[in-house]
Amino acid sequence: MSCWTDQWKDFVRKTSYKQTLAAEKISNDQFWSSYGIYDRALLLAGYPGEILGKISSLISPNSTLLDIGAGTGAFAIPLSKKTSRTIAVDPSDHQLQILMEKARQEGLDNILAIKKEWKDVLPSDISAVCSSGEDAAIVDYSLAAYSLFDENIECFLSRMIDIARKGVFIVFRGGGVDSLNEFAYGRRPYADYICLDHILSDLGYRFDRMLFTRNYSLPVDLVFKQYRFCKKSPEQLLGHLDEEDRLIERSDGKWASFQATDALLYLNR
Ligand SMILES: C[S@@+](CC[C@H](N)C(=O)[O-])C[C@H]1O[C@@H](n2cnc3c(N)ncnc32)[C@H](O)[C@@H]1O
């Protein structure tokens, strides 16, 4: 095992939201159900932003897409307007229900859901939802955006590469940790796209890379909800944001400014 896979394992165990599931003794579905502001936060944060257009431009029309950890459909919904079929994999019933409701509202009938972690998805699960014959277990493209929460990252990546005929897209953190996060949780094991890039290269793959930065602001009550599992009080979080001169007074209350960088790693075959 390389130091990069060790770094990833440490990140999943000690820093990612999987650590919260263990510490709070809650299930993945309970975590997402208790995070009702997720879609609003994504919208205000301008996510996925430009990265979506880039992926869309690399996908050929009428192709099939496997979105691993599709969540509420930030990618699956818009990309399904271009694909012939999108398979959304996610272990959270809550997330998949939101995704499928959005699909219904948009009149999209080409999205199929598999409620499982990626490591547990069998080729037969894919054939079963596709209910078509030859090569049903192979898709044109696979995508995982902020969903690679598996300690066995080599297996996660190898499987998403092996299943995709034409291309693979990975979206993950491109920049450092927000100082608010470090203030709230202390310094924790870190991983970003560079770690993933090294693991991919050890597996024998050379992915292209692009970085996209988003500047945005969020109402502070929403920030408190994002940090609902940390040990700092809302007043302490506010104090930190104030010290960094990140608070904005608006007619509808206090907002805080943020910057996030997303990395796109892609393999076009
Ligand atoms: C941060 S959300 C990202 C959702 C979406 N891809 C996006 O970019 O908005 C992470 C999602 O990955 C799912 N997830 C976590 N671990 C997973 C795994 N091992 N396999 C598949 N999905 C997973 C979660 O249930 C959650 O819906």
Give the topology.
Elements: H1 3-14, H2 17-24, H3 28-33, H4 38-44, H5 50-58, E1 64-68, H6 76-79, E2 85-89, H7 93-105, E3 111-114, H8 123-130, E4 139-145, H9 153-162, E5 164-173, H10 179-185, H11 193-202, E6 208-219, H12 220-226, H13 234-243, E7 247-250, E8 253-268
The chain binds S-adenosylmethionine.
What does this structure look like?
With 269 residues, the chain is α/β, with parallel strands linked by helices. The chain has a single domain (3-216, 259-268), classed as Rossmann fold. The protein is built from 13 helices and eight strands. The protein has helices spanning 3-14, 17-24, 28-33, 38-44, 50-58, 76-79, 93-105, 123-130, 153-162, 179-185, 193-202, 220-226, 234-243, and strands at 64-68, 85-89, 111-114, 139-145, 164-173, 208-219, 247-250, 253-268. Strands 1, 2, 3, 4, 5, 6, 7 and 8 form an eight-stranded mixed beta sheet that branches. The longest helix has 13 residues, at 93-105. The model has no long low-confidence stretch (mean pLDDT 95). The structure holds S-adenosylmethionine. S-adenosylmethionine binds next to helix 3.
